[in-house]
Amino acid sequence: MILNVATCQFPVSADIEKNAAYIIRQIQSAAAKDADVAHFCEGALSGYAGADFPSFEGFDWEVLRNSTENILNAAREAGVWVLLGSSHQLSSGRKPHNAVYVIDNRGKIVDRYDKRFCSGDPQGYSGDLSHYTPGDYSCVFEIRGLRCGVLICYDYRFPELYRECKRSGVDVLFHSFHAGNVKPKQLREMQSQVGPEFAALNRGTTYPEITMPAMMHSAAASNHLWISCANTSARESCWPSFFVRADGIVTGRLKKNRAGVLHSTIDPEIQLYDSTRDWRDRAMNGILHSGETASDPRTRDRRSI
């Protein structure tokens, strides 16, 4: 079953209603080109705490709820699924979840993924953990017969999550990032951490620009997953949104720091290179070699020539 994916990016900000207007326009644009699903970045509707706004103190949850309802209506009217990055309010006194809502083509929320690996120190005083409560479950659902999963930004540092997706039969992964709205001083600090002398040796000058796309290539190829990678385009964006085929090949990329919608087609029936197909299940089950090993004294003697 073919699945048409619209990977969307725009300059996410602290203005919820402005974000919602972008999202609704891009849902309509996706539908006009027969997309089955529109995928948005981390914090696309609410903005991303610590980057787009300093904290949730005084946050207008009522505006967020109303704007979410408007997007549900837009999804229903357009007849497309929507993967919506936002924030999910918890009970009084608890930090919200950093979430992606799974909205079907009838405008109904059918599931939600809450970012499991939030950055920060173990005490929760820094990074994501100073603003958000991590989730503790995976999210798997079906669109047009294809099993889909969701991850959020810093989750990319944990390859176990991609193996979990593969074990769950996931074909398509929607990975929502927020690697943007980086101010000039912060950008210089990030570049200094990498080291200017290494810039020519890497595809980028910051950790997000170097490691995030590289991990998407690797995760797609080693797990045979199609991956939509949605990012904010707020300047300075570390990289533009892109789409990776299940063999690790990028098939489309938007322009950095510019709003846009990338259309990609997933056809699970096409034959793609997959060098680990025969051995992947064994590896996931703890058999960490291919073929048959030898019961041979010279195998066991590892100190001789």
Description of the molecule:
There is one protein chain. The chain has 305 residues and is α/β, with parallel strands linked by helices. The chain has one domain: Carbon-nitrogen hydrolase (Nitrilase/N-carbamoyl-D-aminoacid amidohydrolase, 4-Layer Sandwich), CATH 3.60.110.10. 26% of the residues lie in helices and 22% in strands. It is built from seven helices and twelve strands. It has a six-stranded mixed sheet with strand order 5-4-3-2-1-12. Strands 6-7-8-9-10-11 form a six-stranded mixed sheet, with helices on one face. The radius of gyration is 20 Å and the shape is globular. The relative contact order is 0.15. The mean pLDDT is 96.
What is the mean predicted local confidence, pLDDT? 96
Q: Number of helical runs?
A: 7
Count up the domains. 1
Broad CATH class:
Alpha Beta
- For the record, the CATH architecture stands as 4-Layer Sandwich
Which regions have little confidence, pLDDT < 50, spanning 5+ residues? none
Mind describing the biggest β-sheet? 6 strands, mixed
Question: What's this model, at a glance?
Answer:
This protein has 305 residues and is α/β, with parallel strands linked by helices. Helix content is 26%, strand content 22%.
Give descriptors for this structure.
305 residues; Nitrilase/N-carbamoyl-D-aminoacid amidohydrolase; single chain; 22% strand; six-stranded mixed beta sheet; globular; alpha/beta; 7 helices; 26% helix
